[in-house]
Structure prediction request, 123 residues.
Amino acid sequence: QVQLVESGGGLVQAGGSLRLSCGAYGFTFSSRAMAWFRQAPGKEREFVAGINRSGGSTYYADSVKGRFTVSRDNAKNTGYLQMNNLKPEDTAVYYCAASLRMVPTRAYEIENWGQGTQVTVSS
Prediction:
């Protein structure tokens, strides 16, 4: 069955960078759009960034534009989220997600979720 596995989270100081990876298993990754969501304690899961099936189109939440870059390598069935200039407010559990929709930006549009990886940004 479809499985997504995130990695690359950790503790970083404000202004630092992290790259998250999302490995896809059990399906052809290129057949799904990929998105990244995050959820902080006490808050709803929110959209962060997304990329279409081919990787030709990307889209971002306003809060991360100019700092985060989403990409994918379909030959490796892997997606990425490069996070630069991290801020304390970026602290959250980050989830990789796959969808049959062209441009998923809402949690209810997601069919498959990864288990999440913790990103903590200290001030």
Notes: The chain has no helices and eleven strands. The mean pLDDT is 96.
